């Protein structure tokens, strides 16, 4: 996957562009445990391997949905670099769905498409349709429309 690098003033060229897929990234129980610690979400389906094997319909622990969402910017930065922005912020999400649970261990990668770039005064808003893929699975782990704000 080639990273797209553009000067910020040419951000509009991203509109309609397909991005990725990224390289695969491993999701392990250690990663999920650290996320659970950071967020306080220690629900057994995520952190108790033995109970998950016994009682979960997935027969394994699963990644938090918000963990997969938190990987979107990580992968996005691997795909796009708009040079010259003094600040970039996650501006929001219009729609987020988790069609398939991420059972552990798994590997994820992301592909996306920039559906819109809005040029405002000293700001570019980039709208990304993101799809998080699970290695070996037909359905995605995550489908989301997310927004990034680039400040000139």
Structure in words:
- The protein is an alpha+beta fold and 152 residues long.
- The chain has a single domain (4-25, 64-151), classed as Thiol Ester Dehydrase, Chain A, CATH 3.10.129.10.
- Helix content is 24%, strand content 40%.
- The strands form two sheets. Strands 2, 3, 5, 6, 7 and 8 form a six-stranded antiparallel β-sheet that branches. The protein has a two-stranded parallel ribbon with strand order 1-4.
- A hairpin with a 2-residue loop joins strand 6 (106-120) and strand 7 (123-134).
- It is elongated, with a radius of gyration of 17 Å.
- The mean pLDDT is 97.
Quickly describe the structure:
This protein is of the alpha+beta class. Helix content is 24%, strand content 40%. The chain has one domain (4-25, 64-151): Hotdog Thioesterase (Thiol Ester Dehydrase, Chain A).
Write the layout of secondary structure elements.
Layout: E1 4-7, E2 18-19, E3 25-27, H1 29-39, H2 44-47, H3 49-55, H4 65-79, E4 80-83, E5 87-97, E6 106-120, E7 123-134, E8 142-151
Largest beta sheet, briefly?
Answer: 6 strands, antiparallel
- Overall average residue pLDDT: 97
What is the overall silhouette?
Answer: elongated
Rg (CA only): 17 Å
What oligomeric state is this? single chain
Class based on secondary structure composition and strand pairing: alpha+beta
Q: How many domain modules?
A: 1
Low-pLDDT stretches are none
Fill in the keyword field for this structure.
single chain; 152 residues; Thiol Ester Dehydrase, Chain A; two-stranded parallel sheet; 4 helices
